[in-house]
User: Which sequence fits this backbone?
């Protein structure tokens, strides 16, 4: 047993997203979203980047998120298993298109609201707090076709209406909200992250910064709305975090690391401190872009900052200005990084760096001085059953316990941490690859990459391990 410092109120749990778990993509009056249009296979990456030939479903492509793991129908069974592990919270997202099928309908879709009402009630009945992301990647297709998704200023108002609808309905039920999942994903996978499709001749960076401004104003308006409607509840931002290391002590590398981190901090500086930082203003000036900001936007950003900082952490990143080193990029990472010779990588080429979560948490806390919430962390791996038919995922236990031990150290360092929700406590569709074989769960789901399988749930070895960790409030780590 280790001495741990996780507070008594620590929110242990797991995190999933509507578009990767629910399925039922046309049920209950739901409209189509960007994620529904993402196929598995070779096309996927260029689609996620915003290079999309046809904004429509094609018969010959397989779309894993359409059925996903059928959480839409099976959530009661799944929640029982989460409760058995002792979850204190479950992070889920609401699908915008279940509530407003077109994104901007005059009235919300009652069937969609009822689905989430039942889901949250089931969680509460099992002693599990819902932690809810308002937008986890999915944008209604109608908004993409009509307004260019977040390129259009109109989305600010539509999103605000959507958020207000949720807050009014779930007031007193949901205590923790988040505005946008991994808001910085907009820069890396613009279609997956924010429904952005590029047109020929567009200045991509300008488009992305304009869309970012719209999301930042929308996020601040959601904060304002929640504080008015349900002052007891809290609302956070959410960053795909991960410290960037300079490859060497050459000041050029060190500066490159600072600049790379600022591409992500840029968002949180606005959401948490309430204003564009000096380095962003300098960048805008030098680009000579005509970014459209309305009068009053700055006041909105200033007045409505987030209550806490949610972040995902999978790996650290490394940067170099040396062309020879730059040739050795890691494959498979969404965030560009050169290979760090001190660290191993996962089967998908993602760098494994437990110490990095302590460094990241310390940096975020030093910078913002607001409570942090680790809302994603985990190892995507191929799970094979052993001779006894059981999945002994010792590698997953190693990864997770090493990260949790470092978080325990971060708490000792003085970091205020609300909770920890590992990514995909039950196997779900992978966002970046669209595959089922990239699994994160403590609970196995019988479904293969082609969509075949019974969808039956079964426990892996990590199930009992996590149960113990929660039971002992981390002492079993
Ligand atoms: C984050 C997303 C999640 C999730 C996770 C793991 O970027 O917020 O939705 O999928 O990464 O990534 P993947 O599923 O690609 O392995």
Assistant:
């Amino acid at each position: 047993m280790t001495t741990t410092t996780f507070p008594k109120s620590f929110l242990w749990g797991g995190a999933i997203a509507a578009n990767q778990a629910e399925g039922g993509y046309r049920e209950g009056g739901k409209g189509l979203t960007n994620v529904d249009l993402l196929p598995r296979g070779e096309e996927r990456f260029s689609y996620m980047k915003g290079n999309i030939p046809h904004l429509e479903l094609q018969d010959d492509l397989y779309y894993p998120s359409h059925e996903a793991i059928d959480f839409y129908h099976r959530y009661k069974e799944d929640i029982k298993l989460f409760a058995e592990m002792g979850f204190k919270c479950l992070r889920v997202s609401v699908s915008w298109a279940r509530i407003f099928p077109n994104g901007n309908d005059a009235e919300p879709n009652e069937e969609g609201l009822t689905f989430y009402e039942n889901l949250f009630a089931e969680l509460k009945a099992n002693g599990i707090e819902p932690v809810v992301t308002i937008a986890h990647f999915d944008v209604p297709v109608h908004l993409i076709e009509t307004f260019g998704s977040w390129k259009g200023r109109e989305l600010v108002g539509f999103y605000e209406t959507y958020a207000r609808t949720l807050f009014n309905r779930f007031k007193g039920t949901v205590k923790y909200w988040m505005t946008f999942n991994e808001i910085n994903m907009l820069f890396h996978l613009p279609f997956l992250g924010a429904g952005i499709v590029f047109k020929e001749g567009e200045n991509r960076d300008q488009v992305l910064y304009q869309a970012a401004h719209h999301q930042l104003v929308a996020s601040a308006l959601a904060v304002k709305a929640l504080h008015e409607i349900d002052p007891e509840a809290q609302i956070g931002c959410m960053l795909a975090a991960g410290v960037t290391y300079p490859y060497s002590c050459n000041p050029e590398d060190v500066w490159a690391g600072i600049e790379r981190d600022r591409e992500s901090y840029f968002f949180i500086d606005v959401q948490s401190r309430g204003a564009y930082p000096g380095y962003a203003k300098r960048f805008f000036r030098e680009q000579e872009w005509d970014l459209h900001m309305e009068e009053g936007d700055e006041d909105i950003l200033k007045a409505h900052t987030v209550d806490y900082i949610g972040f995902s952490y999978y790996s650290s990143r490394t940067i170099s200005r040396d062309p020879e080193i730059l040739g050795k990029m890691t494959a498979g990472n969404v965030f560009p990084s050169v290979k760090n010779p001190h660290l191993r990588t996962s089967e998908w080429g993602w760098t494994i760096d437990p110490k990095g979560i302590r460094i990241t948490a310390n940096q975020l806390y030093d910078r913002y001085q607001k409570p942090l919430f680790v809302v994603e962390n985990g190892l995507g791996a191929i799970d094979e059953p052993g001779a006894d038919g059981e999945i002994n995922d010792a590698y997953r236990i190693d990864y997770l316990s090493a990260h949790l031990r470092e978080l325990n150290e971060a708490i000792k360092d003085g970091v205020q941490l609300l909770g920890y929700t590992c990514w995909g406590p039950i196997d779900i569709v992978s966002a970046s690859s669209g595959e089922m074989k990239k699994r994160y769960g403590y609970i196995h789901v019988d479904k293969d990459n082609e969509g075949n399988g019974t969808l039956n749930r079964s426990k892996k070895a990590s199930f009992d391990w996590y149960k113990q960790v929660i039971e002992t409030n981390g002492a079993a780590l």
